């Protein structure tokens, strides 16, 4: 069965399977939930069941949000009757990050979907989608996995991990894998050590220097992981707003080193014991 190897999301998978079996699966749908929990994989398996052939599936947005030209190309392909398959399925990943012109280009297809077609939007922030898109789609909400489920998934795909990764992955297998392939876990626990030793004020410049050679993606992962780790600690309120602002600065292309330096200077005067 297409969904048999998927861990978690039992209720959502049951509903999707039932709708497909009854041939009442909606022409336009949104798969919404946190990053790295498997919703894109479920969308792909759903598409395979709907199209009944890999030739009938097109996907975009996995590497970067889809552009207006990519949406137009997909819409053109979608509008042509299938030849080698019964149905056509379009899956758009990172749909919430589309620019307004790309989102608006998608509206016509959503308003008049072909009788043989299905459109699935995958998003980590359903609220970020424009209301005219949301109003035309059935929303399937996917929640976080449990710690045992994350561990099972990592074991099933042969990935070795330690408890440090589990603590900061936010119960997201996708984020756990990204952490394993980054410098973030080591940086997180170096920062924790500085906090425990109350050495952050004098070590801020040295620590932030480490981000001179780190990518923007890893810096974003560092901020997310820090937020996840501190969310269960008393100091969370001291860090929450600065982390949110640091994330905003990163979105506006500030340098990672400057962002981390600003973050640590901002919170160091209010530093509390862990």
Explained architecture:
The longest helix has 16 residues, at 236-251. The chain has helices spanning 10-21, 39-51, 68-79, 100-111, 131-134, 147-156, 163-168, 173-180, 184-196, 200-209, 216-230, 236-251, 256-268, and strands at residues 28-32, 57-60, 88-92, 117-123, 138-141. Helix 3 packs parallel to helix 4. The protein has two domains: 10-141, 3-Layer(aba) Sandwich (Rossmann fold), CATH 3.40.50.300; 182-268. Helix 4 links the parallel strand 3 (88-92) and strand 4 (117-123). A five-stranded parallel beta sheet has the order 2-3-4-1-5, with helices on both faces. Helices cover 53% and strands 9% of the residues. The model has no long low-confidence stretch (mean pLDDT 87). It is an alpha/beta fold and 274 residues long. It contains 13 helices and five strands.
